[in-house]
Design brief:
Layout lengths: L11 H24 L4 E2 L4 E2 L2 E7 L6 H15 L6 E6 H10 L3 H9 L4 E7 L2 E4 L13 E11 L8 E10 L2 H17 L1 H7 L3 E2 L10 E2 L1 H19 L11 E2 L5 E3 H7 L1 H5 L5 E2 L2 H6 L3 E2 L2 E2 L4 E3 L4 H8 L11 E10 L15 E11 L4 H18 L3 E7 L9 H18 L5 E3 L9 E7 L5 E10 L2 H4 L4 E2 L5 E2 L2 E6 L4 H11 L13 E5 L5 H13 L4 E3 L6 H10 L4 E5 L1 H6 L2 E5 L5 E4 L2 H13 L7
Parallel strand pairs: 11-17, 19-20, 26-27, 26-28
Antiparallel strand pairs: 1-3, 2-3, 3-8, 4-5, 5-6, 7-8, 9-10, 12-16, 13-16, 14-15, 17-18, 18-25, 19-21, 21-22, 22-25, 23-24, 28-29, 29-30
């Protein structure tokens, strides 16, 4: 399995790039204020592969403005102005920025503790900054401004609306060229653009942001994915075949008391949607288990409390364990509008969610089974990935002893399954337990959150779950939360980008399109398409009056895996000619049955070809 180690320490090159990008952000801010006097500054940090700076101004930055700013940056660079560090007191810093009208900078200084404040100056520009920077602006040679987006001061949508200019900077001209090439490839693969072009999904404005609608083609892909995942669960392939996962369907809303018991109200309320009943509205007073104003129901942000309730129905014996429940459950989470990103970050999504209830002795092997399940799914699509252990944060439930036991349990599994290849991220666990995350590395080198495995000793205690052990004594089960793909929506978006919209045959919404060369072959084309559909494949015939070349271009634009061409010769001989989207080769097949056999083998093998 291609588990790749995650680089944990910054190399000297990484540090140099960080300084270059940080310094280039300052250079850009100077250029902006030179060209657009009165522009006020927000934050301007280096980020992965680049930098940005937030500006407060009435002037809407355009592409033409970016070219002017970049030109001014290159002029300023020639001065080879040194980056000079100086220290001032907090009071002096407040006076400085207030005097300049930089109220956002002054506000940030107010949040800092008393003591020394550092500034960096290059030429006429100075900024509140901890550094470090390059020696002088002459070292900043290989940069490019990429675009403008909106942002809010401190990420608060109720605060000042800002404009964020994005850029990239590198050590060499070749590195910059290669990165810009990757960005072009990323645009070609952008799932938001391809989703619209291929009729996969849309985000109707009337519905609200972050709520995807699957169009017919997208719904076909999603249902095929669900059927595959359903079969993997009920077959017991990654557990005991004689005791596979059992399906559940739970409500989309639960009483507020349930979310209080689970700890979500106390630890996750800002991400939840609450539901108000007519009774509450009629009485004019909205009360919840944790105080007023909550409503008496909450839309579920997670499926786990519902599965806990099902397990709690009736008495359980050690013979009932492990119990494995799964649900393709739709959940709703309030994500700030600025963080939404196509299908990769939405507010309503469906998880391939499951919860395993087992004895303390059983959980290591159960976690290993889930680990192998995750690897199988990612390997099917040829993804590279690494795994990480996320440990306790400040916001959590349960004692340190419980967290120690849970973290040690996951660490032991990782040592067995991915020794030397996993990383540890302190403080990034969910509030109820530590977790193992699968991070997918796509064809452009970007990283995305995938499946997750979480070990939980807390919710069974909070919901008072129990079972009777072999000695007749009451015991508390261990709970394992897990999602293999993470969410269908995010995985769907990743697949679109990974395959540039050209899905593997088994997932393609249209697997074969039959193209008659002329009008005389239309009926034969329909017969071929009908025969393919009867064999279980998603096939259609193109009966338009367009030329064959246009039909082929249309099929390739739609990224259909196979185009079948039928002309006078094929009609006379009862044959077909096939062109594969992936290699573009034409092949004459002597009998349709041979093609059907080829398709069946490719579908069964879940072949993941890339063009």
């Amino acid at each position: 399995m291609p588990i790749i180690p995650k680089q944990q320490e910054q190399t000297e090159k990484d540090l140099l790039l960080w300084r270059i990008r940080h310094s280039t952000a300052h250079l850009m801010a100077q250029a902006v204020q030179d060209l657009f006097p009165g522009t006020r500054l927000g934050f301007g940090p280096p980020v992965r592969n680049g930098f940005y700076y937030d500006f407060e101004t009435e002037h809407p930055f355009s592409d033409a403005d970016l070219k002017r700013i970049e030109k001014r940056m290159r002029e300023l660079r020639k001065a080879r102005a040194p980056f000079l560090r100086r220290e001032i007191t907090r009071a002096d810093a407040l006076a400085l920025f207030r005097g300049q009208g930089e109220h956002l900078k002054a506000e940030h200084v107010e949040t800092l503790e008393d003591g020394t404040i550092t500034l960096y100056q290059s030429g006429s520009f100075q900024d509140l900054c901890a550094g470090p920077h390059v020696e002088h602006t002459g070292e900043l040679q290989h940069f490019k401004l990429l675009g403008v987006s909106g942002s809010y001061w401190r990420g608060d949508e109720h605060r000042e609306r800002l404009q964020r200019i994005h850029g990239t900077a590198w050590s060499t001209k070749q590195e910059l060229k290669e990165h810009l090439g990757r960005l072009q490839e990323a645009k070609r693969r952008d799932h938001r653009i391809l989703g619209r072009q291929l009729g996969l999904f849309e985000f109707p404005e009337l519905a609200g942001p972050g709520l995807p609608f699957y169009l017919p083609n997208g719904a076909l892909v999603m249902e095929e994915m669900k059927r595959w995942m359903w079969q993997l669960h009920v077959s017991g392939a990654y557990g005991h075949p004689d005791k596979p996962y059992e399906p559940l369907l739970t409500p989309h809303i639960l009483r507020t008391e349930a979310w209080h018991t689970s700890g979500h109200i106390q630890n996750y309320r800002e991400n939840m949607y609450m539901v108000y009943s007519l009774d509450e509205l009629d009485h004019g007073l909205l009360k919840g288990a944790a105080g007023e104003g909550l409503g008496n129901y909450g839309l579920k942000p997670m499926n786990c409390p519902g599965h806990v309730m099902v397990f709690g129905l009736g008495k359980k014996s050690y013979r009932d364990l492990p119990t494995r429940y799964f649900e393709f459950g739709t959940v709703y989470r309030y994500e700030r509008s600025g963080t939404l990103h196509g299908m990769l970050r939405v507010r309503g999504f469906t998880q391939d969610d499951a919860h395993i209830f087992c004895t303390p002795e059983q959980y290591p092997s159960e976690v290993e089974g889930v680990f192998d399940f995750c690897c199988h799914v990612l390997d099917t699509f040829g993804f590279d990935y690494h795994v990480g252990l996320k440990t306790r944060g400040e916001k959590r439930i349960g004692s340190d002893d419980i967290w120690d036991m849970a973290e040690d349990g996951l660490r032991s599994v990782l040592e067995k399954r991915a020794a030397g290849k996993y990383y540890v991220q302190e403080g990034d666990a969910t509030f109820y337990g530590p977790k193992v995350d699968f991070v997918i590395k796509d064809s452009l080198g970007r990283e995305w959150q995938g499946g997750t495995i979480q070990l939980d000793f807390n919710l069974p205690r909070r919901f008072d779950l129990g079972y009777i052990d072999s000695h007749g004594k009451p015991c508390r089960p261990v709970m394992i939360h897990r999602a293999i793909q993470g969410s269908f929506e995010r995985f769907f978006g990743l697949l679109v980008e990974e395959f540039a919209g050209a899905f593997p045959l088994w997932l393609a919404p249209v697997q074969v399109r039959v193209l008659p060369i002329g009008l005389d072959q239309r009926e034969y084309a329909q017969q071929v398409a009908t025969a393919l559909r009867s064999a279980g494949f998603r096939a259609q015939a193109d009966g338009s009056a367009e030329t064959l070349n246009k039909k082929i271009r249309s099929g390739k634009t739609a990224k259909i895996p196979y185009l079948v061409v039928v002309g006078a010769r094929e009609l006379e001989q009862g044959t077909i000619t096939v062109e594969s989207y992936f290699d573009g080769k034409l092949r004459q097949i002597t009998a349709l049955d041979h093609f059907v056999e080829h398709l069946a083998k490719e579908v069964a093998a879940k072949v993941a070809r890339r063009r």
